């Protein structure tokens, strides 16, 4: 029999689970510091109670045997792996070691301390043929990469009936990610997962069945041709970066979106489960080292993107926007980079509280109308410092943002860029001197805007027209600068956002031209592909934006 002990240094108690010889399960919580003798005495009383209950069932036995109801307390001892009895004064935390043997009367239990265990196993709600199915796996004392996976499909009903039986057929797939073929359309899937810790210890398996059957996929997608350029991860001297506004569910599923913004898009293609299928396949197929995403719903990050991209070797970081349910996500390839530190800020908060922005804050105070608007915005900046796993002298400061959206908000965006550049300078010049910068995002700014000019030229004049983007009453004129030499790695495409009423270039990957150079830019989908279903999003493209992808190398 097994006696399972869960013991963590961070918790005051340990828990102990075992099944008594009479079949009753016991679950005990004991202080880690308590001497073993007291825990064993408690187990003995528990076991006697168990016997007592069994005895009470038979009145006849009680009448004949008199004290049968109060069964004798069994001897309870704990022996270490090498067969020596563990002394009763040893504290619980030290006594209950893996492989020890617990004796309760004649019964023997092998102690399993912190065995691998699954805490969550979930399949996505929507399954499409030809698109990867990535389960959400949460485990304790185990890691998804060491778990065992077995995939099953429903048995097709005999004689063409429409209800599949409860019989399951194992597929050849034994990987964490399973891509169903067209042959599985109409059938449900089942996954059996056995948690493992990488040290040949395995815990009890869990099974989960899909809520619905595999459905037919959309056929060709806008990203299929792009995947031809990104089949492999690029070499250690290079970095493949992606920036992509993935369209938050919060904005895609409103009545306004369905009827006014995207009336050309089939309603089912705006649903989050459908778009997630496309997104996971698209992102996995880019074999990227760095992915900066905007408009990421918190639940999408936690339940869908983080587990899926984790299976493809990427570690994710999330920063929510205050007031909204969406935010920014940065993913980096685990075997190429490790995370040194994070320096995320909300623009409005940083502007008010950080000494770094004191001067800008004082200048802004002269323009109360603009100041109020800037402080109302919930925009955030995600900054992560990464270090190369093969060459620790190589670090990267990766920034990710989504600036204010309003067409007349050019002046607000200039202030946001100023705060961003000061903050990035603090991280990449003061905290980690000489660290190259990659600044990705949806800047909501075309190449002719002040924000774009400020980032790429290093300065903005006080007479720039964007200071009056919302009319004279909201003019705020200042001359600002930053020390970086930044270049838009993917140039200035005709558009990165294509909806019914607008198309233009709003997204960029800015790179430090002193330290990095562009090796290749992955071509954007053709105009024909983008407009096949009139505009974006569509059944074959999950967002209203287009991902930017480029391969960079250290100079």
TrEMBL record:
Species per Swiss-Prot/TrEMBL record: Prunella fulvescens
Endonuclease/exonuclease/phosphatase domain segment(s): 243-545
Family matches, as Pfam families: Exo_endo_phos, PDE12-like_N
Gene3D superfamilies linked: Endonuclease/exonuclease/phosphatase (3.60.10.10)
Keyword Repeat: no
PANTHER family documented for this protein: 2',5'-PHOSPHODIESTERASE 12, CARBON CATABOLITE REPRESSOR PROTEIN 4
Cofactor dependence: Mg(2+)
Membership in a protein family: Belongs to the CCR4/nocturin family.
Region described as Disordered: 47-67
Keyword annotations of the record: Exonuclease, Hydrolase, Magnesium, Metal-binding, Mitochondrion, mRNA processing, Nuclease, Phosphoprotein, Transit peptide
Basic residues compositional bias, start-end: 50-60
Location relative to the cell: Mitochondrion matrix
Segments forming domain 2',5'-phosphodiesterase 12-like N-terminal: 115-215
Keyword check for Magnesium: yes
GO molecular function, one term: poly(A)-specific ribonuclease activity
UniProt xrefs under InterPro entries: CCR4/nocturin_mRNA_transcr, Endo/exonu/phosph_ase_sf, Endo/exonuclease/phosphatase, PDE12-like_N
Name listed for the protein in its UniProt record: 2',5'-phosphodiesterase 12
A GO CC term attached to the entry: mitochondrial matrix
């Amino acid at each position: 029999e097994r006696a399972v002990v869960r013991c963590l240094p961070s918790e005051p108690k340990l828990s102990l689970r075992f099944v008594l010889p009479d079949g009753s399960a016991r679950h005990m919580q004991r202080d880690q510091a308590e001497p073993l003798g007291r825990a064993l005495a408690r187990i003995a009383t528990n076991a006697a109670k168990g016997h007592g209950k069994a005895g009470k069932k038979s009145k006849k036995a009680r009448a004949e045997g008199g004290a049968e109801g109060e069964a004798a307390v069994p001897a309870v001892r704990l022996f270490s792996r090498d067969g020596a009895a563990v002394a009763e004064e040893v504290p619980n935390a030290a006594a209950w070691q893996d492989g020890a043997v617990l004796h309760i009367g004649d019964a023997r239990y092998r102690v399993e301390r912190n065995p691998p265990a699954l805490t969550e196993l979930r399949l996505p709600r929507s399954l499409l043929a030809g698109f990867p199915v990535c389960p959400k796996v949460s485990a304790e004392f185990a890691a998804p990469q060491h778990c065992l996976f077995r995939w099953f499909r429903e048995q097709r009903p005999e004689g063409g009936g429409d209800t599949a039986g409860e019989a399951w057929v194992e597929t050849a797939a034994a990987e964490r990610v399973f891509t169903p073929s067209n042959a599985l359309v109409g059938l449900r899937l089942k996954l059996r997962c056995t948690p493992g810790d990488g040290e040949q210890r395995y815990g009890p398996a869990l099974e989960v069945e899909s809520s619905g059957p595999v459905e037919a996929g959309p056929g060709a997608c806008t990203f299929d041709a792009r995947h031809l350029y990104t089949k492999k991860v690029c070499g250690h001297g290079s970095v493949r970066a992606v920036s992509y506004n993935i369209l938050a569910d919060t904005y895609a599923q409103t009545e306004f979106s369905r009827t006014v913004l995207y009336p050309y898009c089939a309603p089912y293609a705006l649903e989050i489960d459908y778009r997630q299928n496309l997104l996971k396949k698209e992102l996995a197929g880019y074999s990227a080292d760095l992915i900066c995403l905007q408009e990421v719903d918190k639940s999408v990050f936690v339940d869908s993107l983080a587990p899926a991209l984790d299976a493809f070797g990427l570690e994710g970081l999330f920063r929510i926007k205050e007031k909204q349910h969406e935010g920014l996500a940065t993913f980096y390839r685990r075997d190429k980079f490790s995370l040194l530190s994070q320096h995320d800020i909300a623009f409005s908060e940083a502007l008010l509280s950080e000494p770094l922005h004191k001067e800008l804050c004082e200048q802004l105070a002269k323009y109360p109308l603009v100041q109020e608007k800037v402080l109302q915005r919930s925009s955030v900046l995600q900054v992560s410092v990464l270090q190369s796993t093969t060459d620790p002298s190589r670090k990267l400061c990766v920034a990710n943002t989504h600036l204010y959206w309003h067409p007349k908000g050019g002046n607000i965006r200039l202030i946001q860029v100023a705060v961003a550049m000061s903050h990035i300078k603090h991280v990449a010049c003061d905290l980690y001197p000489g660290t190259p910068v990659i600044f990705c995002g949806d800047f909501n700014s075309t190449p002719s805007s002040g924000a774009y000019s400020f980032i790429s030229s290093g300065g903005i004049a006080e007479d720039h027209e964007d200071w009056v983007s919302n009319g004279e009453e909201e003019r705020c004129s200042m001359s600002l600068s930053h020390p970086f030499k930044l270049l838009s790695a993917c140039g200035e495409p005709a558009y990165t956002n294509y909806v019914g009423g607008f198309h233009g270039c709003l997204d960029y990957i800015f790179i430090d031209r002193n330290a990095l150079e562009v090796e290749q830019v992955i071509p954007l989908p053709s105009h024909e592909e983008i407009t096949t279903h009139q505009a974006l999003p569509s059944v074959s493209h999950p967002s209203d934006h287009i991902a930017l992808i480029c391969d960079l190398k250290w100079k």
